[in-house]
């Protein structure tokens, strides 16, 4: 659903950019409450994993494909504020390095694919989590429904943006029907991927899933006389995350570097609708079309399989580096703010 340059006019693109910038600023502050010493590096890995999975277009109808948007997955794994930042990093890397999603449309894409999907998905996820029994299976079920709904919600948001600033004269009713119809199908794929990923992590490390906090059994010490004493979380040593982080990184590299070669080559939902309805008549050439990684191919590497695989691996590495850097800085700002708040106030007498 990456919106190219030229689909939306300049005034609405600027307005969407202002909305996106404001949302990112709010999320940078909100993420301080979500990121602890383990979540910061893992959030960068979540961004890299979503980048990799977005390369795996899956068929949803004749001549149409879809791919993960990732808002629901990111929000449930690392929190809604951090989730918006994860998807924003992915969109930035895709636009700048791979000419995927317009640069003048970056605000539109962040508003639609990062903010709308994350807010809708996490709000619905929390409602379902409160209504369902407090079990790990409930987290997976809630993740499935939240992800399913988030994709047509993003399609509705695009339709609204297009109604306000579309550069071609296409009846908005036709755009809405086509966009929502195909993205309901794409939402099923999104839901399956999200549920499988969340379910896998919850099964082995529920303590690392933001949406599953409180499900892990409390730590206890059993004494020689048989009595059980609970251990306060603050006094318990945090479990290392290196193993699961390593597995996640290897999986992301494998998906982007190898599995992506077998992804569907059919146009995604927005591309198909834009072509069929004439929305793409106003499309403009991407400012980064001459990037050495444009279209997820490494320039001057003739073998398509090798070229695409290398581009995917580079993308995962770049997204991981930028994402981790952002989240580590946010985490340090939280630590500095906490230290300043806890510092004793001294007064001098003259």
Strand-helix topology:
Elements: H1 10-34, H2 39-54, E1 58-61, E2 64-66, H3 71-78, H4 80-98, H5 106-131, H6 136-165, H7 172-204, E3 220-222, E4 228-230, H8 242-257, H9 269-277, H10 304-342
Antiparallel strand pairs: 1-2, 3-4
Number of strands: 4
Spatial order of the strands in the main sheet? Answer: 1-2
List low-pLDDT spans.
none
- Which structural category do the helix and sheet elements fall into? mainly alpha
How do the SSEs run, as a string of H and E? HHEEHHHHHEEHHH
The Cα radius of gyration reads 22 Å
Structural notes for this entry:
The protein is mostly helical. 63% of the residues lie in helices and 4% in strands. The protein contains ten helices and four strands; from the N terminus they run ααββαααααββααα. The protein has helices spanning 10-34, 39-54, 71-78, 80-98, 106-131, 136-165, 172-204, 242-257, 269-277, 304-342, and strands at residues 58-61, 64-66, 220-222, 228-230. The chain has a two-stranded antiparallel ribbon. A two-stranded antiparallel ribbon has the order 3-4. The model has no long low-confidence stretch (mean pLDDT 90).
